[in-house]
Amino acid sequence: MPFYQFTQTQKIPVSKQELWLFVSNPANLKHITPPEMGFDITSQIASDKMYAGMIISYIVKPLLGIPLTWVTEITHVVEQSYFVDEQRIGPYALWHHQHKLEEIPGGVLMTDTISYQPPLGLFGALANALFIRKQLQKIFAYRTQALVKIFGNFNP
Hints:
Structural class: alpha+beta
Strand order of the largest sheet: 1-7-6-5-4-3-2
Mean pLDDT: 94
Low-confidence stretches: none
CATH class: Alpha Beta
CATH architecture: 2-Layer Sandwich
Strand content: 35-45%
Radius of gyration: 16 Å
Number of domains: 1
Helix content: 25-40%
Number of helices: 2
CATH superfamily: START domain
Distance between the termini: 43 Å
Shape: globular
């Protein structure tokens, strides 16, 4: 079964602490997800800060507006450095998403690394070539612009 990785980096002109407070709050995911994805958190969020073991369920509409339940677990958290979410229920055979923050002159370098495996073997590989990878690129292009609107352009 094919296995893929997608990496996106962005330089953001704020302190590591300020960016961490934003990205580690599950409620902020909606603000950086394209509206057409129909992203809604459906679980009760007991904290405004992610922690290891946190389970978050969502409804997303990634394809043709068809609603899909997605459940992730926050498996690793190192305060102000990184956290990992892994799919527990959803469309992928494997989904592991690391959000990493590194202090740089003038701000923070944020790196998202997604390791994923579509379902259905060769059909999943074909789906990845036709639309899954392109959709990830589109989602992260939107996220980049949303973060620029929130925090401004990086100009060291």
